[in-house]
Amino acid sequence: MIVLLSVGPGTLESTMTEDLSPAERYAAARQRAAEQATALASFREMYDFGLDPFQIEACQALEAGKGVLVAAPTGSGKTIVGEFAVHLALLQGKKCFYTTPIKALSNQKYADLCRRYGADKVGLLTGDNSVNSEAPVVVMTTEVLRNMLYAGSQTLLGLGHVVMDEVHYLSDRFRGAVWEEVIIHLPASVTLVSLSATVSNAEEFGDWLDTVRGDTEVIVSEHRPVPLFQHVLAGRRMYDLFEEGEGHKKAVNPDLVRLARMEATRPSYQDRRRGRAMREADRERERRQRSRMWTPGRPEVIERLDAEGLLPAITFIFSRAGCEAAVQQCLYAGLRLNDEEARDRVRALVEERTAHIASEDLHVLGYYEWLEGLERGIAAHHAGMLPTFKEVVEELFVRGLVKAVFATETLALGINMPARSVVLEKLVKWNGEQHADITPGEYTQLTGRAGRRGIDVEGHAVVLWQRGMSPEHLAGLAGTRTYPLRSSFRPSYNMAVNLVEQFGRHRSRELLETSFAQFQADRSVVGISRQVQRNEEGLAGYRASMTCHLGDFEEYARLRRELKDRETELARQGAHQRRAEAAAALEKLRPGDVIHVPTGKYAGLALVLDPGLPAGRSNGHRGFDHQDGPRPLVLTAERQVKRLASMDFPVPVEPLDRMRIPKTFNARSPQSRRDLASALRSKAGHIPPERARKKRSQAADDREIARLRTALRAHPCHGCDDREDHARWAERYHRLLRDTSQLERRIEGRTNTIARTFDRIVALLTELDYLRGDEVTEHGRRLARLYGELDLLASECLREGVWEGLAPAELAACVSALVYEARLSDDAVAPKLPSGKAKAALGEMVRIWGRLDGLEEDFRISQTEGVGQREPDLGFAWAAYMWASGKGLDEVLREAEMPAGDFVRWCKQVIDVLGQISAAAPGEGSTVAKAARKAVDQLLRGVVAYSSVA
Question: DSSP secondary structure string, 306-339?
Answer without folding.
Answer: HHTT--SEEEE-S-HHHHHHHHHHHHHTT-----
